[in-house]
Amino acid sequence: DTEVTQTPKHLVMGMTNKKSLKCEQHMGHRAMYWYKQKAKKPPELMFVYSYEKLSINESVPSRFSPECPNSSLLNLHLHALQPEDSALYLCASSAGRQFFGPGTRLTVL
Amino acid sequence: GDSVTQMEGPVTLSEEAFLTINCTYTATGYPSLFWYVQYPGEGLQLLLKATKADDKGSNKGFEATYRKETTSFHLEKGSVQVSDSAVYFCALSPDNYGQNFVFGPGTRLSVLP
Fold first, then answer.
1. Which of B42, B98, B108 sits opposite A96 (nearest CB)?
2. Region B2-13: what's the mean pLDDT?
3. Within a 13 Å sphere around the CA of A44, how many CA atoms are in the beta-carbon half?
4. Which of A14, A21, A54, B3 could hold A76 in an S-S bridge, CB 3.0 to 4.6 Å?
5. pLDDT digits 0-9 by tens, A10-30
6. C-beta neighbour count of A53 within 10 angstroms
């Protein structure tokens, strides 16, 4: 299994909602990432987990809360988002290079 | 800090034309270099990579050579197809683990039939 999976594929939420994005990989990679990608831009790093511990938080607002329950799973909990948070959220894992999931297209109304 | 510069495009070519997308980098040490491709509505897929100077990465007719003397990793393809229409990202990783990736701004390629 050489893929990273993400659910849901699409998500629409209001500014008062709480939702979660999920990411899973079974390649045994010990580093996992969340990226945010706006249209026509490269991915921007949000969080890095290394051996299930948060190692990098790129000054992301607290309305985004990551969680790594085990070495295969990565969640991103969303609360009180703003319309400008609408974007494609990509998960990745790495071993020598980064393996990306297909992303969750998030729309905040 | 480390950085990647690439031509931003958009690049529009006719089918079977020759493609070059320039990429240059700034990094300390000896980074690994990558090209990723992103098709509409999808995540990023690795296209090719090179881990040391003079290495040539190749895949699906695309090639890029790691040129340390010019700090470049230009992407080339001899004959593009409509199906190659996508956004191409040049990237580097300063370590061997694939962490601390730095992406270029991306180049949008449109291939017309």
1. B98
2. 92
3. 14
4. A21
5. 999 998 899 999 999 999 999
6. 8
Q: Do B26 and B104 form a contact (C-beta atoms < 8 A)?
A: no
Parallel, antiparallel or unpaired: strands B11-14 and B107-112: parallel
**Yes or no, beta carbons of A97 and B32 under 8 Å apart:** yes
User: Does B105 sit within 8 Å of A96, measured CB to CB?
Assistant: no
pLDDT digits (tens, 9 = 90+) for A38-69: 998 999 999 999 999 998 888 899 999 999 99
Q: Angle B3-A95-B44 (CA atoms, 0-180°, nearest 5)?
A: 60
Residue from the list A31, A99, A105 with its beta carbon closest to the beta carbon of B99: A31
Yes or no, beta carbons of A103 and B43 under 8 Å apart: yes
**pLDDT exceeds cutoff 80 at B107:** yes
Between positions 26 and 65 of B, the ones with CB within 8 A of A are 32, 34, 36, 41-46, 49
